[in-house]
Amino acid sequence: MGELWQLSATEAVDRLRRADVSPLEMVEAAVARIAAVEPHINALPIRFFDQARAQAKAFRRRSTDDPGWLAGLPIAIKDYNDVGGQLTTYGSPIYADHRPPADDRTVATLRANGAIPIAKSNVPEFAGSHTFNPVWGITRNPWDPTRTAGGSSGGAAAALAAHEVWLANGSCLGGSLRIPASFCGVVGLRPSPGVVPRGDGLPAFDSLWVEGPMARSVCDIALMLDAMVGLSAHDPLSRPVPPAGYQASVRHARPPSRIGFSPNLGLRSIDPEVGEVCGLAVQRFKALDCAVEQAAPDFSDAIDCFQVLRALMFAGVRGDLLAAERNRINPDIVWNIEKGLHLSGTEIIAAQRARDELFHRVARFFDDFTLLACPTVAVPPFPVEQRFPTAIAGEKLATYIDWMFLTFAITLTGCPAISLPCGVTNDGLPIGLQLVGRPHSDADLLGMARWLEEALAFRPKVLIA
Question: Does residue 78 have an active-site annotation?
Answer without folding.
Answer: yes
